[in-house]
Structures are given as structure tokens and as C-alpha cells.
Amino acid sequence: MRRWWGRLLLAALLWSVIGLLFALPAFSSAGWNRTLLGSLAQWWSWGLITPLIFWVDERLPFKEQRLGMRILAQLIPSLLLTLVYFYVFFAVRALLGLSPWAMFTDIHMLSNAFRGGILWSWLVYWLIFGARQTYRYYQYYLASSYASSAWSAAFLRHASTRSVCSSIRTFSSMR
């Protein structure tokens, strides 16, 4: 339970720092607080969608070594989750008082989203997916490196035991 809360706090901090970094250029302008809240809304929304991206990735039937198949399998979910991101983003903006809740009844909401950066958001999806794959490959590398070093250590122990026994036999036969 404690570990779960720690991860949650770390994730909230990570997404907040990213939002802060993207809002830095606006700190010299008069409306910097709205820009900061807008940036935080954007990145906190991605923080809420990221577990869904990871969940979809974990359900794929492909091993880590089949990256091409993993990418192809993510095409449709990436589009759907990017659309879900826009709904979450609009909800977070409304929660922060940046947009009215009535915008959810606007039939042009999604068309505005398409004009307002669907490709940018899709790119962010793929960056999150790529970061996840990088982390998975790193874990795979560490596991294989550990297995390799464990195998090497066992081999060396066995080899050194054999060479000691062989040396003793050689030495004994010389007497």
C-alpha cells in the first residue's frame, strides 16, 4: 500500500514538473497564472491517461523483442486514447476553472480538438509509449545481464573447481 502511494506522488510530481517546464516561457507575460494552469491541466491529463497506455501495452501478446508488432498493435488504441485524453483534458480544464462545463454539450468539441492539436497529442502518446518501451528494454537488459553474469559466475566456480581437482590429480600422480 505504501509503495502505491509513493508511486502516485512521484507520478504527480513528474507530471507537475513537466507542466511547469512547458509553462516557463509564459512567466514573463501578464497572464502567466492561466498559462501555468493550462499547462498543468494538459500534463496532469496525460498523467491520468498514462496508466491506460501502460495497461494496453501490458495486454499485448507480443514479447519485448517484437517492437514492430507492439507498435502496429498500438495504432488503434493510440488514436482512441488520444481522443479520451481530450475529454479528460477538457474536464481538468473545467475543474481548474479555465473552461466552462457547458463545453461538453458543444457538438463542435471534438472538431475543435482536431484543430487544436490532435497530432501534437498523438505525438505525446507515442513519446509516453516509447518511454515505456525504453524502460522495458532496460529491465530486460538488466535481467539478461544478471542471468548472464550468474551463469558466468557458476561456470567459473565449476571451472575453477575442475581445475583445482585436475591440479590435485596431476600433483598426486607426480609423487
Task: Estimate what percentage of residues fall within beta strands.
Answer: under 5%
Overall morphology: globular
Number of domains: 1
Low-confidence stretches: none
Count of distinct strands: 0
What does this structure look like?
The chain is mostly helical. It has one domain. The chain has helices at 2-23, 32-58, 67-95, 109-115, 118-174. The longest helix is centred in the last third of the chain and has 57 residues, at 118-174. The chain is globular, with a radius of gyration of 26 Å.
Summarize the structure in short.
By secondary structure, the protein is mainly alpha-helical.
Secondary structure elements and their pairing?
Blueprint: H1 2-23, H2 32-58, H3 67-95, H4 109-115, H5 118-174
Helix pairs in contact: 1-2, 2-3, 2-5, 3-5
List the keywords.
175 residues, mainly alpha, 0% strand, globular
